[in-house]
Design brief:
Blueprint: H1 3-17, H2 19-31, E1 33-35, H3 36-43, H4 47-59, E2 63-68, E3 71-80, H5 82-86, H6 91-116, E4 119-120, H7 121-134, E5 142-143, H8 144-156, E6 160-162, H9 169-172, E7 207-208, H10 216-231, E8 238-241, H11 243-262, H12 265-278, E9 292-293, H13 294-300, H14 309-321, E10 327-331, E11 337-340, H15 342-362, H16 364-376, E12 378-379, H17 381-388, H18 393-401, E13 405-409, E14 413-417, H19 421-425, H20 436-444, H21 446-449
């Protein structure tokens, strides 16, 4: 990791968990892998505080442990998952997304789980119902079944998943110093944990009543009975937020927004429908969605749009022919088979983002040269001037000094565009990236947007 990333991780840990956890986490980031005793010795912190800090980090999926270099008989070693620490910077957006999709109940469910790292379903339902009831007018109460329903929808759409099962005994404890720790929250793929989206059967779906001063004891007894009832079927099953699923949702929203700006609202709704039909059925890093027939898309469109079938065919043809390559055609059965081209669409969006930044910072002539190099890949200086029809020497030097182009020796000295989003993306200030979708594209899809040299 770069020094800036380490510093950011330290600041996030300090803000959320305090100085002790920050010190333990930052030291693990810098040292890589350490045993518990080595970590306590090097940080000069009491062993008990180091244990508690590691438990906090593992509770939030930011630390993992396993057998050390000596094997299962040796001491357990710990390492930090830096990516999960950096996810804390997007917690507000995860919560807002849950609110926009599933209302206040979904918002509070995701907020509670993010704050605690992992929770059982029954505990989450109880806590959220209590919070919603507290904000309701006197005499009204929140029905447990509504919270359970929102929780179930979040799991069905894969925004929540079960925590991975406990590691084997040989790698989870070794001696009194390395006592058994909470459930391991190492990243896991759904195919490695087939029941990660299976909901337990939760009983006790009554209403959460508002407590009053004159009947406080009775209300506490009622609450306890309902809580005990709700625990049945969900004991020991902890749930966590699926960050990758939120990121895929951000990706889809960026594509939908781009289609709306480039074409119109109806086109974006067609693309939204295609993405929604494939969202939980395709691998996370798939280059395109599942192939869907025009008939399937037509049946899945919201009835409020009232799009006739011939109009839908025209829109699909328009999307296929668009140079941004949002939609591709793969076959003719069922009125035509269509996919959303995820990687080409993201590559084009990233290129358009860089073009707009170049135009804003260096002017329209530099942007013309930049677009020209994007299309041609490499040109001599004389060719650049001939194609762009502008004196290019000064502008090429400016782009070269900003690491947007580079010189490469071939048979002649040729100017070649370096599509290096990692190198340049970190230099964009907030005024140039006001929308987090753009930042997300530049960060998370670098591999799909880079072209070979």
């Amino acid at each position: 990791m770069t020094a800036q990333e380490v510093r950011l991780c330290g600041l996030l840990l300090q803000e959320h968990f305090g100085d002790v956890v920050e010190k333990v986490g930052t030291h693990l980031i810098r040292r890589g892998v350490l045993t518990l005793r080595a970590l306590a010795h090097e940080t000069k912190l009491p062993l008990d505080l180091v244990k508690k800090s590691l438990c906090v980090l593992m509770q939030h999926g930011m630390c993992a442990f396993g057998a050390g270099r000596r094997g299962p008989a040796g001491p357990v070693e710990y390492h930090i998952i830096c990516e999960h620490i950096l996810h804390m910077n997007r917690y507000p957006r995860y919560i807002y997304t849950a609110k926009s999709l599933y209302g206040d109940t979904g918002e509070l469910i995701v907020e509670e789980i993010l704050q605690r790292g992992q929770m059982t379903m029954s505990s989450t339902v109880k806590t959220v119902a209590d919070r919603l009831t507290h904000n309701m007018p006197e005499g009204q109460s929140m029905d447990y079944s509504e919270v359970v329903s929102a929780f179930s929808r979040l799991v069905e759409t894969h925004f929540l998943q079960r925590c991975p099962p406990m590691a084997s005994a040989g790698s989870s404890s070794s001696g009194a110093v390395n006592a058994p720790l909470p459930a391991v929250t190492q990243p896991t793929k759904p195919e490695d944990h087939p029941e990660c989206y299976k909901l337990p059967y939760i009983t006790g779906q009554g209403k959460r009543r508002r407590s009053s001063e004159d009947g406080e004891a009775e209300q506490r007894a009622t609450k306890k009975a309902k809580t005990d009832n709700s625990e049945r079927g969900g004991e020991g099953i902890y749930w966590q937020v699926t960050f990758q699923r939120f990121h895929l949702h951000f990706r889809d929203q960026a594509i939908i927004s781009a289609v709306s700006c480039k074409l119109d609202q109806t086109s974006s709704e067609i693309v939204r429908t295609m993405l929604r039909m494939s969202e939980v059925k395709m691998p996370a890093h798939a280059a395109f969605t599942q192939a869907l027939s025009a008939n399937e898309i037509f049946r899945a469109l919201p009835s409020s749009y009232n799009i006739a079938r011939p109009i839908l065919d025209q829109y699909l043809t328009l999307l296929v022919d668009d140079p941004m390559e949002f939609v591709g055609r793969t076959g003719d059965s069922g009125g035509g088979m269509y996919v959303v081209n995820l990687h080409p669409a993201l590559a084009n969006l990233a290129r358009a983002t860089l073009e707009s930044v170049v135009q804003e910072r260096f002017g329209s002539r530099s942007a013309r040269i930049f677009r020209l190099l994007l299309r041609k890949r490499h040109l001599e200086q004389k060719q650049v001037e001939d194609f762009a029809m502008v004196p290019a020497k000064d502008m090429l030097y400016t782009l070269l000094s900003e690491n947007l182009v580079e010189l490469r020796p071939f048979s002649h000295m040729i100017i070649n565009l370096v599509f290096s989003l990692c190198a340049y993306g970190g230099r964009l200030d907030s005024s140039e990236n006001q929308v987090d979708e753009t930042i997300f594209l530049l960060e998370s899809y670098i591999n799909s947007t880079q072209a070979p040299p």
